[in-house]
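Quiz preparation item.
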């Protein structure tokens, strides 16, 4: 009888449906995909969950702006994520949406049962409310009447709400974190959570009055309220398996890894663990908080036009190169910086030069010396054994590194094997062996070993680059897929059957030559990325504090727009001539999504006058105009009354 398969469960956050998917989202999802594929190769039954978070104020507002009901709005928007995951070859088992009945029903069942168990109570609450952030603040949090997170004015509100008795679980949770080293990773994040739990844990407000927010899951015990969006969203991880009773029996709980960004660690480590405790479910085995990607050293933001779109990258470089780069470049857990230059560097060195070259030279030699056939190898010599040993050591090391989700180290380890195999070929010198009869016998072993090493490498890189790995496998002439081979096929050297006829194909990882690199860099520096990829459901936290003197360094001036014209080939940019009193400036502004050129002429705007000139789409911009945005809409900053050009704004 077959043993039941071991089970493995990994999740990504569910993404806010209003967002345009960017590399930050792709990063977590690819990371989850890699570990899922690896576990499948290892014989596990894997459940890999992703999805979209579809309730909340911002979704409601955006739907209203578009003149559609929120359900129609989210039905349309969530598709962008689904499509991207297909494009990036993501092997998720399910895609959950928080507006689906299978989810909302479970949320309501949980709410009702926690209410019945007196884990939820009603109380009045008075506090400072930030409407755009949908968030209450205490007196001491508020900064000069403004929200400490987004800087906008807050108002005092008193209302009745429902609270989850989270505070009672604080001590239990701190103990659990302390006693389970791998519960929160990496260590630095675990320490943050412990620091947070040093202070007494409060109860959690889990409702919003419908008069303020009608778009959410109704509380089953009070129809005037909807559930707080996080209370609703976190439940996705179990609602996909049914009610808590079914979750207990499904074999996938506790979840092996919740992969999350560092910004949403507290909601997972604290809110979610306490919610589960109240439901009598064990906490997840691991919550791994990864770092954030910046772009060329800057925060990714629509106002900087530097949002990196995975679809565009996939067009330029191919899916596997992106999957490889994101996980190779930066240790999972640390922040990383994205640049096209670094991506091209990795493509050319690791992929084209090292791995690509190993594949090409091996297949060329099999073609040239053995008519494309992998022959029965002659007996092994000690130097052959060294390669086989390295392969076996790599397989073991990789397995241990997966337990830590140390993706970049896994890849570095695999590339040691690539290098050693390239070195092995250099040392053995097949081109010399081919010259004598005795040498030719020895050659069968050298070429067999090179092919077998390539097969081991293909299996190992499959989780990261599934398509390329299968291609290597096919080029080696295998008539079984990598999934069929599984990890067991690389635990011992020599699984590759002799007699296969190789099928050399096109280069797997072509080098990006200088000319092409130049073109890519030019395109990358042209700020044409769409303007709404930032998280729409959150407002950015306030940036680091600066001194007053720092602020006065920024020379803000009023300017009158004299001319305006669209920049060809750009959907976003308009070229302006702006009179700033002492001189006229040419400014390129990303405001075409909000304004037609003719609406702009004669308008007074605020200009950063001492910004270093920069080229946007090849056109020089001598300043920057201040504007805000709401979803896709760009709104220029201005004044109640007309001011002359050149007035300093302070
Ligand atoms: N909807 C919530 C999650 C609910 S989970 C029950 C949410 N969504 S989000 O769309 O705003 O963010 C999803 C994930 O994207 C988070 O893990 C966040 O850290 C990640 N990223 C957003 N920008 C990022 C980068 N620039 N870099 C890396 N990851 C980033 O929060």
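Solution:
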């Amino acid at each position: 009888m077959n043993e039941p398969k071991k089970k493995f469960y990994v999740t990504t956050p569910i993404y806010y449906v209003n967002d345009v998917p960017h590399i930050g989202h792709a990063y977590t999802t690819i990371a989850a995909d890699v570990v899922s594929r690896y576990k499948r190769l290892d014989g596990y039954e894997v459940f890999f969950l992703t999805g979209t978070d579809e309730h909340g104020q911002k979704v409601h507002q955006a739907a209203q702006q578009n003149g559609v009901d929120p359900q129609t709005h989210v039905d349309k928007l969530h598709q962008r994520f689904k499509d991207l995951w297909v494009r990036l070859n993501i092997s998720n088992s399910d895609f959950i949406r928080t507006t689906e009945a299978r989810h909302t029903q479970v949320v309501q069942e949980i709410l009702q049962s926690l209410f019945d168990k007196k884990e939820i109570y009603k109380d009045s609450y008075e506090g400072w409310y930030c409407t755009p952030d949908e968030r209450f603040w205490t007196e001491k949090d508020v900064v000069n009447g403004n929200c400490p997170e987004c800087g906008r004015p807050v108002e005092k509100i008193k209302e009745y709400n429902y609270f989850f008795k989270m505070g009672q679980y604080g001590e239990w949770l701190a103990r659990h974190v302390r006693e389970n080293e791998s519960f929160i990773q990496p260590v630095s994040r675990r320490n943050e959570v412990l620091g947070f739990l040093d202070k007494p844990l409060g109860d959690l407000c889990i409702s919003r009055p419908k008069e303020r927010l009608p778009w959410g899951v109704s509380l089953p015990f009070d129809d005037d309220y909807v559930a707080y969006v996080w209370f609703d969203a976190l439940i996705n991880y179990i609602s996909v398996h049914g009610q808590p009773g079914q979750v207990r029996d499904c074999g996938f709980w506790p979840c092996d890894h919740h992969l999350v960004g560092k910004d949403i660690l507290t909601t997972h480590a604290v809110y979610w663990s306490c919610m589960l405790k109240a439901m009598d479910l064990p906490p997840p085995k691991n919550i791994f908080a990864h770092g954030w990607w910046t772009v060329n050293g800057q925060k990714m933001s629509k106002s900087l036009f530097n949002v990196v779109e995975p679809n565009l990258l996939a067009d330029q470089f191919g899916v596997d190169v992106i999957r490889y780069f994101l996980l190779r470049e930066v240790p999972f857990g640390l922040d990383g910086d994205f640049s096209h230059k670094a991506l091209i560097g990795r493509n050319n060195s690791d992929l084209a030069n090292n791995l690509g070259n190993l594949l090409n030279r091996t297949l060329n030699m099999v073609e040239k010396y053995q008519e494309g056939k992998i022959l029965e190898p002659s007996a092994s010599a000690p130097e052959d054994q060294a390669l086989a040993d390295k392969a076996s050591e790599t397989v073991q090391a990789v397995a241990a590194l997966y337990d830590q989700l140390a993706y970049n180290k896994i890849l570095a380890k695999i590339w040691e094997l690539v290098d050693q195999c390239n070195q092995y070929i250099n040392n053995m010198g097949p081109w010399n062996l081919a010259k004598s009869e005795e040498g030719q016998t020895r050659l069968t072993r050298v070429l067999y070993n090179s092919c077998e090493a390539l097969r081991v490498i293909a299996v190992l890189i499959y989780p990261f680059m599934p398509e390329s790995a299968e291609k290597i496998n096919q080029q080696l002439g295998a008539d079984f897929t990598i999934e069929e081979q599984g990890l067991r096929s690389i635990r011992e050297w020599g699984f590759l059957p002799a007699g296969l006829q190789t099928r050399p194909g096109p280069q797997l990882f072509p080098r990006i030559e200088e000319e092409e690199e130049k073109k890519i860099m030019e395109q990358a520096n042209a700020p044409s990325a769409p303007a709404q990829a930032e998280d729409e459901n959150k407002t950015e936290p306030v940036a680091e504090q600066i001194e007053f003197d720092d602020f006065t360094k920024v020379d803000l001036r009023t300017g009158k727009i004299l001319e305006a014209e669209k920049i060809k080939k750009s959907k976003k940019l308009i070229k302006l001539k702006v009179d700033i009193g002492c001189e006229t400036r040419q400014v390129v502004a990303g405001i075409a999504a909000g304004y037609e050129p003719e609406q702009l002429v004669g308008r007074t705007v605020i200009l950063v006058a001492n910004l270093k000139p920069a080229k946007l789409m090849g056109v020089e911009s001598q300043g920057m105009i201040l504007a805000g945005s709401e979803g896709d809409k760009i709104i220029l900053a201005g004044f109640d009354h007309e001011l002359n050009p050149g007035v300093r704004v302070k």
